Amino acid sequence: MIRPEPAAAVSPPGLLDRRLDGLGVTLHGDAGTLRVWSGAASEIELVIFDGDDLDWATDVIPLERGDGHVWSVTSPRLRAGTIYAIRVDGVHGPGNMFNPRTLLVEPYSRGLASGGYGDWRSVVVEGSFDWGGVGKPRVPWDRTVIYEGHIKGLTKTHPDVPPALHGTYAGLAHPAMIDHLTSLGVTSVELLPVHAFVSEPRLLNLGLTNYWGYNSLNFFTPHAPYATEESRRGGPEAVLREFKQMVRQLHEAGLEVILDVVYNHTVEEGIGGPRSSLRGIDNRSYYRQDEDASYIDVTGCGNSLNTATDAAARLVLDSMRYWANEVQVDGFRLDLAATLGRDANHEFTPEHPLLRAIVDDPALQDAKLIAEPWDVGLGGWQTGNFGSGWHEWNDRYRDRVRNFWLSDVDYARRAGTPPVGVGGFATRLAGSSNTFSEQRGPLAGINFITAHDGFTLHDLVSYDVKHNIANGEHNRDGADTNRSFNHGTEGRTSDERILAVRRKAMRNLLGTLLLSAGVPMITAGDEFGRTQRGNNNAYCQDSPLTWLDWQHAPWQRDLLAHARRLIALRHANPALRPIRFARLGEHTPSASVMEWYDERGETMSIERWTDASHRTLQYAATSTPEVEELNRILLVVHGTETPMDVTLPRIDDVSRFVSLWSSADEAPDSEGEEIAPGAVIGMPGTSMRLFRAE
Asked: Which one is catalytic: 335, 408, 526, 542?
């Protein structure tokens, strides 16, 4: 791990300097106060616009410089609904990009109005809302099952959601969607970016849009196009109210709301890109640059927010505080979080003041904090290296599980023998103790097999290579290494033998995800096998390709039934969701004591662990409960395509195994069968089976 000299890091007192409190517009009585930070500005003006004509400036008021480089003005013209912008001038030189004629979005704006592409105004939002006594669900981490989805894609074609609500915040809160989520059993909805964003000119020239939304314009304003037409007509206040109503209704159903937030870069792109906000306010302080003022781009998006400066770090912290408290969201998944943890030398450190401030902030104590633990810069891959309080997307888990069920099987078909055995897979199944420290435990890892970025579950078992021609980049975009396997033919097929094997592969992948130690994340639509026809980078596809299709074939309904059964089994069996890693020979509360057996029911030997041809495993986990009943499970994993007889192990105090689930079943129907220890069961090729040990 790269650790900078202590002097290179931003000091916590600077980040938490009280002089940086109250930035943006604060309403009080019959007036409002605007506070803007800029260390290099020589002049800042507040420009107020007519409510109906965004080109008609009705007043220009200068701001005064105060302590801590904070500029401010108090005016009765600043009130709820006021449309405004700021203009900033300063000393011109390397790193500065001032233009006193450019109208800029104020960074702490709670609302935005658009006069056309690239022509934005800030809007004062009062923001009051009656929460009706509805609080946050506060789902414990060990019971958390995350469902990652896109606001528009979730409901755009849902037949039971009224057309006026399709693709909106209100649509997600509709009873039809809440019923799907609660019956599935997920606890937390993780939304792709909902901060105001715009599409890059390059995409617009191709007739495409930035569908995913990883191109933030402002960190405080909800994306207006996701609101209903009625709310959009009502303006930013109504859009924010619809968003809060969505949060309240999901909370009433016991569902958490986690936001995927993009603080690592902004819409302003590289030098020569639009000057819409931070670049025109204090370019040198807000964006990472070399001494010659060249941007240091560790995000691949043209610029990188410089969280080594107090103002930029505080902007992120204040945005998170706002959404967690004023909007009542339950957590955050920080996109390219390694960027936010880079110091003044542009090196990652887990003790970065911003990362620690987020964890230690009393205003964020109940928030779920999830890091995407990488970026594209030097030293950017940091999985397992974030500090206590952080949870991380576990790409090591993703890759190993895909390998075991897909690319290893493909390799074995070609070479006659698998490339590796079951050891690495078992480590991921048991919580990735080789990635996350004992102090952080298995819940530090967010396990996932698919995400918005990459193949869907269906496409993972149906395509060997990406098919991204529609993205306009000659199939150069998107990952080339997918660890996928088409099982004999590329894409669509009518061959029932291939289709049956693909369906089983999906059940194996879902079963592994939902029966592993750690926190599982499901990508929306994977529960019923949606396809993107082989596109593994559909960020620019706002079409039926990316919208969930709610008309399902019988096999999709069967897969959905498997997903529901697996999530219910996870909730019912605490041995599957340990909070801590067990210690050999010690009693560790809220851990799972794990024992490993081979297909003969014998304790796994070192030779069996390291034998590449040995891919059958029996995994027994016994809980060490603090608040729940004692629980013990047995999971049988068979990772080759040749069927095998497996002898169930003889375990002290276990008189029977009760069948709970099998991936070999087209529809879940293996519940309740009782089998004695020492009995022999037949395991079909590449399959799993779960038992409760009694």
From this structure: 335
